[in-house]
Specification:
The longest helix has 54 residues. The protein is an all-alpha fold. It is globular. It contains 13 helices and no strands. The N and C termini lie far apart (50 Å).
Length: 362
Amino acid sequence: MKNKILEGSISKLIITVGLPASVGFIFNTLFNVVDTWYAGQTSALALTALSLSFPIYLIVIGLSSSIGTATNALLSNARGKDDEQLVHRYFKNVLLLSVVSALIAGILFIFLSEPLLKISGASGETLTLATQYIQTIFFGAIFFSLNYALNGFLASLGETKPYRNFLILGFFLNLFLNPLLVFGALGLPGLGVQGIAVATVVVQFIGVIYLTYKVFKNDAFKMELMRLEKFSFKVVYELIQQAFPAFVNITTVSIGIFIIQSFVVLYGGDVAVAGYGTALRIEQIALLLTFGLSVATVTIVGQNFGAKRYDRVFETMRKAMFIGTAIMLVATIVVVPLAPQLMRFFIDDASVIENGVRYLRI
C-alpha cells in the first residue's frame, strides 16, 4: 500500500495534514475564548484570576502536549521503518507514561498552586478564585495527557481529523456547560470561575472516550501486538528524551509569563493583569495556523526520516519555515490596527482594554 507521507507532494501534505489540525486548534482556542468571555461577564476579579492561573495551566498543557509530540515523532519514525511491533511498543509505554506523569503532576500542583499564585501577586478573593480554578484543572490532568497521547498515535498516521472533531465537539460542549456551571441552572449551583474548570475537565474526559474509540477502530491499531508488549524503562526513557525538549520549551514560556505577571501585578495591579491575560488569548488566535503547521511538519519529517528520505525532510523544513513566516506577517498586519476592537469583545473596561492593546501592538 502506497504511503502518502513518503510519496506525496510536500506542499500538499502540509495543507492536507496541517489544515484539519489548524481547524481543530481554532476551536480549541475558541474554547479558551469562551472561558475568558464568561470570566469577564462574572467580574473583573474573575478575569484576573483566570489570567493569573494561565502560566500554571500551561504546565498541564506542556506536560501533555510534549508527550503527544514525542508519540507522534517516534511513532512516525517507526512507521517510516515499517515496524508495526515498534509502533505498538512505543504506544503502550506512552499510555503508561501519560497516566503516571499526569498523576504525579496533578498531586504535586494541587498543593503547590496556591503558594505559586501568591508569589505571582494574587491575594484575597483573586487568590481564592484562581486556586479553585487551577486545582480543579489538575484533578483532570490525566485526561489532558491521555488525549494528547491518543492523538499522537493518530497524527503519526497523518490522521488529524479525529482530534479536530473532538476539539469542535469540545467547543460546543463548553459553550453549553459554561453558563450552566458558572451561573447555575437545571438545579445545579453556580460555581463561578471553578465552574469554568469543571466544564473543561468534563470535556477532556469525553475526549478520552472519543479518541480511544477512534484509535481502536483504526486498522493500524493491533490489539494482539499491544498485548505482547510490556512496560519498558528503556522505551520510557526514549520517550522522555523526545518529550523533554518540548516540555522545557512550554515550561519556559510558562515561567516567563509567571515572571511577567508578577511584575504586572506589582506595577499595574489587577486591571493590568486582566488586560495582559486577555491579550494572550488574542495572541493564541493569531498563532492558530502555526500549530497545525507544527503537527504537519512533525508527521512528515518523522516518517521520511525513518524511511531515510532526507531530501524530503529538508524540503519540508524549508517550506514550513516559509509558510510559518508568511502566516505571522499576515497576523501582524491584522492584529496591530484591530487590537482595540479585539479587546473590546471580551470586556468593556477602558483601563483593561488600554493595557491589552499596548501589549498586543508591541
